């Protein structure tokens, strides 16, 4: 594990030095995605309570609309993040191919990639949400709730990033990668 | 030991139904401690064969036994482990991480094993000494010459003390003098007991190997194999 972290750290540092723009976009993109998601969803509990109290079709419609809106926004963010992730993946493609040639199994390469994106997304989101905590002067319980939701949301937004890896076995791209040269 | 029987590989070209028969039934046995040259025209199937031998590509038909293990039964993880511990690659374009320093590049294969940092340092230093570039250890690869880069690649290939070294046109991008130096390295590695397979266009390089195999159009055509 220590060595994965070492490799991930080296890679993160290099990527930040060499590709500032993409990496900044990536971090900013995931943070914005999470913020929007939280903002949109924050009114759902109220709407649900309203529905429980009134039991009117109007309240139900409102709740449904809100959920639809949140889903739509999440879907858009999902695509945006997946695209940004593809950019990060492309930065690492050469390295991934070389690593698998040197004896990293698919699982190990994926672990390194996931570590990298998780560190990026989780740390970015933690920063964003912690600043919200200070900004709104929340109490400790709200703080804990936010922390938990940050981890959950980070996991959710990291999810789309699995997809390119699962679809694209690393060694299969070996030849195509070499032939591009 | 490498034992290959009637090995076939077909590529399907993306976007069309066209098929390329890259290998049409290859038989080769490479014994331990051999040094073999594979020759042939461009497109003959040399790289495909080497990639299959190195467990990078799969094959469609035939049999491949590596040290007595039937390669077709290996899982991805097991194949990766074999690649890591038993096989070292040296390629024409070096395939190094250009933005990293020499030491990091040579260290990479060791990161997939359970070694302490001290063991890693020792192994890296030994590999760098073996190819005479221990003084370059902290230099960035991008700043090195072609010959130096190829030495880094060889150090990386031998750092895990593999039994096989597979080289795909390792001197293709080098001038004659540097190419001679690199071949000398391969020969001394072979003297130390490593099995070496080198793909080459260069007859001078091939002459330094103990056995030559020629491939044409996915088949072996060298006299040696025809005699059998
Ligand atoms: N990924 C691929 N997709 C389709 N055809 C390929 C692919 N890789 C190699 N080939 C074809 O297989 C044949 C053998 O290629 P290769 O083994 O690279 O030859 P060599 O190394 O002898 O020049 C060539 O006709 C090449 O075009
Ligand atoms: Mg080739």
Name the features.
heterodimer; A: 181 residues; mainly alpha; 7 helices; elongated; B: 228 residues; alpha/beta; Rossmann fold; 6-stranded mixed sheet; 4-stranded antiparallel sheet; 10 strands; 34% helix; 26% strand; binds adenosine-5'-diphosphate; binds magnesium ion
Describe this structure in words.
The complex is a heterodimer of chains A (181) and B (228). Chain A has helices at 2-18, 20-41, 44-54, 57-101, 106-136, 140-167, 173-180. Chain A is mainly alpha-helical and 181 residues long. Chain A has one domain (2-176). In chain A, α3 runs antiparallel to α4 (57-101), α4 crosses α5 (106-136) and α5 packs antiparallel against α6. Chain A is elongated, with a radius of gyration of 20 Å. The two termini of chain A are 33 Å apart. In chain B, α4 (117-130) crosses α5. In chain B, a hairpin with a 6-residue loop joins β1 and β2. Chain B has a single domain, classed as Rossmann fold. In chain B, the strands form two sheets. In chain B, strands 6-7-8-3-9-10 form a six-stranded mixed sheet, sandwiched between helices. In chain B, strands 2-1-4-5 form a four-stranded antiparallel sheet, covered by helices on one side. Chain B is globular, with a radius of gyration of 18 Å. Chain B is of the alpha/beta class. The A-B interface holds A 3-4, 6-7, 10, 14, 18, 94-95, 98-108, 171, 174-175, 178, 181 and B 51, 54, 56-57, 76-77, 79-81, 83-85, 87, 89, 93, 95-97, 99-100, 104, 108-109, 111-112, 156, 160. Adenosine-5'-diphosphate binds next to β2 and α1 of chain B.
């Amino acid at each position: 594990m220590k060595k994965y972290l070492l490799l991930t750290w080296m890679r993160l540092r290099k990527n930040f030095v060499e590709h500032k723009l993409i990496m900044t976009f990536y971090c900013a993109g995931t943070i914005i995605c999470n913020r929007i998601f939280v903002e949109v969803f924050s009114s759902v509990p109220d709407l649900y309570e309203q529905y429980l109290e009134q039991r009117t079709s109007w309240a139900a419609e409102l709740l449904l609309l809100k959920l639809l809106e949140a889903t739509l926004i999440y879907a858009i963010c999902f695509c945006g993040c997946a695209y940004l992730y593809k950019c990060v993946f492309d930065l690492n493609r050469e390295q991934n191919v070389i690593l698998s040639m040197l004896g990293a199994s698919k699982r190990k390469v994926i672990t390194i990639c996931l570590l990298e994106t998780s560190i990026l997304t989780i740390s970015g989101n933690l920063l964003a949400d912690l600043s919200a905590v200070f900004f709104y002067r929340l109490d400790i319980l709200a703080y804990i709730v936010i922390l938990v939701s940050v981890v959950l949301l980070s996991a959710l937004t990291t999810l789309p990033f699995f997809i390119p890896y699962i679809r694209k076995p690393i060694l299969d791209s070996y030849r195509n990668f070499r032939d591009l040269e | 030991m490498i034992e290959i029987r009637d090995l076939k590989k077909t590529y399907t070209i993306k976007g069309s139904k066209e098929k390329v028969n890259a290998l049409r039934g290859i038989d080769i046995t490479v014994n331990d401690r051999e040094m073999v040259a594979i020759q042939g025209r461009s497109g003959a199937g040399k790289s495909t064969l080497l990639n299959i031998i190195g467990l990078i590509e799969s094959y469609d038909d035939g049999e491949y036994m590596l040290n007595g293990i039937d390669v077709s039964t290996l899982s991805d993880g097991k194949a990766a482990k074999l690649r890591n511990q038993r096989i070292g690659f040296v390629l024409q374009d070096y395939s190094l991480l250009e933005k990293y320093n020499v030491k990091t590049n040579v260290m990479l294969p060791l990161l997939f094993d359970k070694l302490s940092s001290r063991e890693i340092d020792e192994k890296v230093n030994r590999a760098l000494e073996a190819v005479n570039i221990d003084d370059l250890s902290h230099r960035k690869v991008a700043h090195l010459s072609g010959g130096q880069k190829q030495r880094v690649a060889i150090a990386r290939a031998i750092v895990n003390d593999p039994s096989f070294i597979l080289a795909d046109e390792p001197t293709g991008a080098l001038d004659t003098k540097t190419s001679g130096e690199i071949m000398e390295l391969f020969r001394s590695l072979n003297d130390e007991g490593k099995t070496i397979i080198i793909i080459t266009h260069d007859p001078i390089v091939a002459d330094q190997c103990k056995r030559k195999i020629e491939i044409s159009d996915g088949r072996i055509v060298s006299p040696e194999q025809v005699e059998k």
